[in-house]
Amino acid sequence: MTALIILFITALLSLFIAFTKKPWMVLTVASAGLIASATALICESKCANMLQFEGLEFTSFAIFYGVIAMIFAFLILLTAYSSFKETPEHTGDYIGLLLFSLCGALIMFAFTDMFMFFLGLEILSIPVYVMAGSRKSDLRSSEASLKYFLTGAFSTGVVLFGIAWVYGGTGSFKLAEINTAIMAQETASPLVYVGMLMIMASFLFKIGATPFHFWSPDVYDGSPVVVTGFMATIVKLAGFGAFLKMFSMAFGSLHDFWAPALGFIAVITMFVGNLSAIKQIRFKRLLAYSSIAHVGYALLTLVIQSPDSPFNLMAYLFAYGFSIIALVTVSLILNDEEDQISSFKGLARRNPYVGFVAVVALLSMAGIPPLMGFFGKYLVFAEAIGEQPWLVAIALLNSGIGVYYYLRIVILTVQKPEEGSPVVSKHKVPALQWFVLAVCAAAILFGGNMLIF
Amino acid sequence: MILGTIFESGISVQFYIVLSTILFAIGVIGVIVRRNAIIVLMSIELMLNSVNLLLVAFSTYFGQGDAQIFVFFIMVVAAAEATIGLSILVLLYRNNRSVDIELFNKLKG
Fold first, then answer.
1. Cα–Cα distances in Å, from A17 out to A11, A21, A87, A400?
2. pLDDT tens-digit series, residues A259-288
3. ipTM value of the model?
4. Domain extent for A199
5. Chain B residues with CB inside 8 Å of A147's CB?
6. Contact (CB<8Å) A122/B80
7. How far apart are CA A20 and CA A92, in angstroms?
8. Is the model's pLDDT at A99 over the cut of 90?
9. The total number of structural domains that make up chain A
10. Domain B13-100, CATH 1.10.287.3510 — does that match?
11. Which chain B residues are within 8 Å of A338, Cβ to Cβ?
């Protein structure tokens, strides 16, 4: 609870400090606030006399997911800093919105009843609608914002309708009481089933699983690169965290009913994501489709639902997030107007350091062994193989398809630059982005072993 | 209180479920079919309001106050959402001189 308050005050402060038009000051305050907030969050389990509120419960689940979301937010802030210099007057708005959205993510990890879940969902989403449209004169950015807003508001309506039906079937908004009520009924009331399916549909919207994925390529493509990174890491992490929490705590006893449906969705999500990614030529679109495929793999943890599921899901998204942040940073450094994949061509020759990190991040997403992405996939698949061998087989097949398009970019990166192409100046890497790349590369290279132990 | 008297007068909760489901369906159809972005926003508001009706009906049925508090939350959030939605529409109208969602097709593939 203290962590949430610190974060909220930091966000307010950064809105006001922006009046000084000194981006570094906003960044310093925001970073200090994030670190203080993360410390408070970690203390939450150890210190007895913290602020308490019955709607939010900071269990170890919420603390782990929250700290990871904060690490990602911190890296994204550092990466975005160089783009703030172009519009110093908007720095505070960006950082403030990002931190407000992070508050929502924290609430979505810690909720114990539907009230807080709904508020968390909205606090998470509404700032992102604005951030997606933050390049005001760019029609693509505005269009992405509108599409994200309309699908997001629609899915809010659906989740609310679902919550209302579940309330009708159980008479409570609290997760634990909903579970007790469902267990007490001999056959669960049809109201609960309808409501649960609607809540599930809305979650699938939020994380971008297949029947409801159509918005995500457009939105990822049109938004500014940094916002794409934010949506692919923190919004996805929050969506998955809340999905897992609600469906294990409130609807855990109906697992036999919803698990097969979710398994089927996972399969089509993987195929749609991977097969569509193959033919993409724009980098952010490729990231969007590959993130749809990754949602498919991560859904396996929900289908299985063992005591290890929260950790496996966290490990998977942790590994995935570092790759995304590294690639977003590379994309910012390349600064290609058209955002074509071909802009990666010869990157390793032009700037070996950036090229190296890009290759490592791509290979980690493909799941090549010594890297972190492999260990994330390993944990998820190893857990699932006992119960659902055919599902794991399909997931492995899909990983194979995924390797194809990741390797395509890797090959482009290490190729020689074309003869006769205009001499590309060595890309200048600002110090902060250099740091972010170093952190991501270190995490991807050496973090995998830590996940296993 | 008024709702309470209506319940006593014999309208059972099933009718409210049916009514709010119909309203919700109208909202969903509106979102899918209509091309004007402002009408789409209105349809989303209709969906949220059908939820409010359902929650209040259940609240009276169970004799609890929780759901009525939830309705206030939904109203507040719906207002915030409408604000953001309308400002995005203003932004688009400045760039495009139209709020027809069929025209927003720069992102494809």
1. 10, 8, 15, 49
2. 899 999 999 999 999 999 988 888 888 999
3. 0.90
4. 2-452
5. 104, 107
6. yes
7. 10
8. yes
9. 1
10. yes
11. none
